[in-house]
Amino acid sequence: MRRSYVFRLRPTRHQEIALAACLDDHRELYNGALEHRRTAYRKAGVIVRYGDQSAELKSIRADDPDGQARWSFSSQQATLRRLDRAFAAFFTRIRAGRTPGFPRFKGRGWFNTVEWPKDGDGCRWNSQPDHPTATYVRFQGVGHIRVHQHRRVSGTVKTISVKRAGSRWFVVLSCDDVPARPLPRTDAMTGIDMGVAWFVTTSEGMHIANPRHLLADAGRLVGAQRSLARKKRGSKRRRKEVARVAAIHGKIRRQRLDSAHKTACGLVRDYDVIVHEALQVGKMTRRARPLPDGRGGFSPNGAAAKSGLNRSILDAGWGVFLAILSHKAESAGRELIAVNPANTSRTCARCGHCAADNRVSQAEFRCGTCGHVAHADVNAAQNILRAGLALRGAVAA
User: Fold this and answer.
1) Residue 149 confidence (pLDDT) above 90
2) Which 3 state secondary structure label does DSSP give 371?
3) Distance between CA 202 and CA 193 in Å, rounded?
4) In a designed cystine with 388, which of 81, 114, 157, 337 is the match (CB 3.0 to 4.6 A)?
5) Which of these, 177, 128, 142, lies nearest to 26 by C-alpha position?
């Protein structure tokens, strides 16, 4: 199986300047290649592809010995392939009838990753293997950078990326042939219902609280954003406030990831079969559609209430949690089943009666046919488990 490892980099001041220059030069290469494609098609109707632009890299590097030539040739090819994937996704969306989204030029804050496609070609993981206390990674044009390696790397390192997140730098290793680590069987299975009031509720009645990390830091974030709005664009003070806002968002993101990892680890450790809803978070958090009133204005559409719900859903991080749960379940040899969430909160887990009136409130479920009373989330989790077992039996048959 394939797995990615993310480690914090500890660059010196000169190395940090070199890493920033590496990102800027790769960003300029990306933007120049995009402009090349746009101009060639607009002026001459010629479609420029990755092979054409990759063949021009040699002359680009020769003309800029103190700039583009400092960096690995293969990393620059990876940047051009990144642009090629953006165009491929653009044409795929056109064929599918979705909003196309033409590839855009990247500003300074929108290009924060550079990839080296092969360990040993312009980069080297564990570049000083005989060092007694520290791990280093080497990048062409930057040098040996110390790595805060907090866990052992398994498998074969295939690609290496460097990533900037605010004022922090990270190295990302993509490894193949990572051995799975199956956990002992528990012969237990559960269905999980995800919500806002409770982050996860199991079919056995266990509730896992929603940490609400964004709400906890909302005061600090609002103060930083208001201070940022008062700063003059391009000023040194504004750059400091941008870094402050980014640091707060980074802390919230790390807290959310930590909670998701711990919750997923607990579920994978305790259950052999886990059934969850196949949630489409992107559609669930889509903005409410405007309602024209026919007189040049718009009628109320509940957008304010919907935006609050969207914020709570995104703060809970359902999509991140499900991705982490999937990876951990695969590594541990657990079975993960996704089911259609339709009517799971309206259906009685005892008699199967489905009606909107069964959901009395956010927390209470009372069946109008058999009188079954339960916590609404526990009832939904039991329905999810039943649907998952039925799907599992149909597949086995």
Assistant:
1) yes
2) coil
3) 6
4) 337
5) 142
Quote the distance between the C-alpha of residue 344 and its chain's center.
Answer: 27
Looking at this protein, which amino acid is placed at residue 172?
V
d(CA 311, CA 306) in angstroms, rounded, equals 9
Backbone angles phi, psi at 78, to 5 degrees: -65, -35
**Residues in contact with 296: Cβ distance below 8 Å, sequence separation at least 6, in sequence order:** none
Residue 54 near residue 73 (C-beta atoms within 8 A)? no
H-helix segments, the chain: 13-44, 50-55, 57-63, 73-96, 213-216, 218-229, 236-270, 281-284, 303-316, 318-332, 376-396
DSSP, residue by residue, 32-101: HHHHHHHHHHHHH-PPP-HHHHHHTHHHHHHH-TTTGGGS-HHHHHHHHHHHHHHHHHHHHHHHHTS---
Percent of the chain surpassing pLDDT 90? 81
Record the tokens describing residue 360, joined without a space.
């009395």
| DSSP three-state, residue 186 | coil
Q: What share of the chain is helix, strand, coil (3-state, %, to 5)?
A: 45, 20, 35
Encoded tokens for 246: 């980014």
Domain boundaries, the chain: 3-176, 189-396
Tokens of 146: 């110390």
Phi/psi of residue 36, each to 5°?
Answer: -60, -45
pLDDT tens per residue, range 317-360 = 999 999 999 999 999 999 999 999 999 999 999 999 999 889 98
d(CA 163, CA 106): 15
Q: Do the Cβ atoms of 195 and 201 come closer than 8 Å?
A: yes
Residues 6+ apart with CB under 8 A from 234: none
- How far apart are the C-alpha atoms of 393 and 397, rounded to whole Å? 6
What whole-number distance in Å separates Cα of residue 264 and Cα of residue 323? 10
141-172 CB burial, b ≥16 within 10 A, e <16:
ebeebbbebeeebebebebbbbbbbbeebbbe
Q: 27 is written with which tokens?
A: 């960003």
